[in-house]
Specification:
By secondary structure, the chain is α+β, with helices and mostly antiparallel strands. The protein has 1 helix and 4 strands; from the N terminus they run βαβββ. Helix content is 15%, strand content 19%. A 4-stranded mixed β-sheet has the order 1-4-2-3, with helices on one face.
Length: 88
């Protein structure tokens, strides 16, 4: 999934929180699994239509909404539905 989808304001990338709380990139070996799962759950509860997670992350969510996707082991990609249906 290219980053052109971010241009309409409906997609956002969220960096994974780290267990050690140090700022900077996280990865499957140092991310805070419980806190990241809370972020996923909250995004779904807020109406996210898609949450892309890396194939190496131990996260769960509704099928078809929380989807494993290559190159997403260091961040979540969240998409919200277009509120007015215009795609802008």
């Amino acid at each position: 999934m290219g980053h052109s989808s971010h241009q309409n304001g409906l997609d956002v990338d969220i960096r994974l929180p780290r267990r050690d709380r140090v700022m900077g990139a996280a990865n499957p070996s140092n991310y805070d699994r419980a806190l990241t799962q809370q972020v996923v759950d909250r995004m779904v509860a807020q109406g996210a239509s898609l949450v892309l997670i890396g194939p190496s992350l131990d996260l769960t969510g509704p099928a078809g909404v929380v989807v494993r996707w290559p190159a997403h082991d260091d961040h979540l990609h969240v998409r919200f539905p277009d509120p007015d249906g215009t795609g802008n």
